[in-house]
Amino acid sequence: MPRAVLLDLDGVLYVGDAAIPGAADAVVRLRAAGLVLRFVTNTTTHTRAATAAKLRRLGIQLDDEELVTPAALAVRHCLERGHRRVALVMHEEVKRDFAALTEADGEVDAVIVGDLGAQFAFEPLNRAFRLIMEGAELVALQKNRYWMTPDGLSLDAGAFVAALEFASGREAVVVGKPSAVFFRAALATAGASPADAVMVGDDVESDVGGAQRAGLRAVLVRTGKYREERVRASGVVPDALVDSIADVPGLLAG
Q: Distance of CA 173 to CAs 60, 84, 116, Å?
């Protein structure tokens, strides 16, 4: 049995504002088995506090320190690199998680890209492109290709990060999944090593492939963005494949 379990949120515990059936009970059962849980997400549409509140509203209880988001890692990366002035390409709400940095429109040290949803357009991307060409580092909160929304699959921030990389010729520093830095940071807060941990996700590339490259075992669920054809095309082989989060306690805790 593992010591720690990393649980993805969107597509694993909920889709939109609806919980996956059995999600809250699965969390209770995993805790009862003595497993250390960390809730890990690439979601950059809401603040960390709002994400924690959403989980609680859906019946999933957690302590604030159990939630790991890319924003905190991006702030840490920038402070370690001496980046103080940054451009923030993301929803206004999420900018509250970057209070330790100074948002600016010009002469910035880094361009941090999160999610703009329907507001992704030529103008904000072109402003970001120009700042990168002037020497700013490109930092991506995540690089997911797409995600599951209540009305179907939708483009995620990774598509726009890739556009900036292509245009500028610069590779983004990715602080969210599938970055090994993200998984190591989550495990450090849990006091666990990769060999003692399991990742549970719905994204075969970001969740499963990223976790396996970081040394964790990984369980893929058939909810959220899961698509059988995508799994086959990815070349990634999950350590286990289950129908939903409801099946995970039986798999990991017996």
A: 32, 16, 18
What is the SS3 assignment for 110?
strand
Cross-strand partners of 149 = 152
Cis geometry, peptide bond prior to residue 2 (ω within 30 degrees of 0):
no
Give the pTM.
0.84
pLDDT in tens, 195-249: 999 999 999 999 999 999 999 999 999 999 999 998 999 999 999 999 999 999 9
Closest CA to 221 of 251, 193, 195, 197: 251
One fold for both 4-69+177-253 and 70-174?
Answer: yes
Domain ranges of the chain: 4-69+177-253, 70-174
E-only strand ranges, 104-216? 110-113, 137-140, 146-149, 152-155, 173-174, 197-201
Beta bridge pairs of residue 4:
36, 197
Fold of 70-174: Rossmann fold (3.40.50)
